[in-house]
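Page 42, continued from yesterday. The earlier attempt failed because a stray header line got pasted into the input along with the sequence. Redoing it now with the clean sequence only.
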Amino acid sequence: MTEGTRFKVYCSQCREKVELPAPEFRLALGASRERTFYSFICPACGASVRKIAGERIVAALTAAGVHTMRLLPVDG
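This time it went through. Structure tokens are written below.
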């Protein structure tokens, strides 16, 4: 993980702008853009926040070494 990389984000619950280090994020890569998202816990209100991640966000989080998981489609 890139040392010291931090990201500024808005909490969708309390609307607070917070700055978090890369290890506080999780990235989920889905089969489509609508199913690719990042998540974090807001330090201001404690809410679990999930937001759609476009290509630039995916690239920035990946470059910072954010823990990434690939979502697989379920058959049936």
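Notes: DSSP finds one helix and six strands in the chain.
Reminder to self: strip header lines before submitting.
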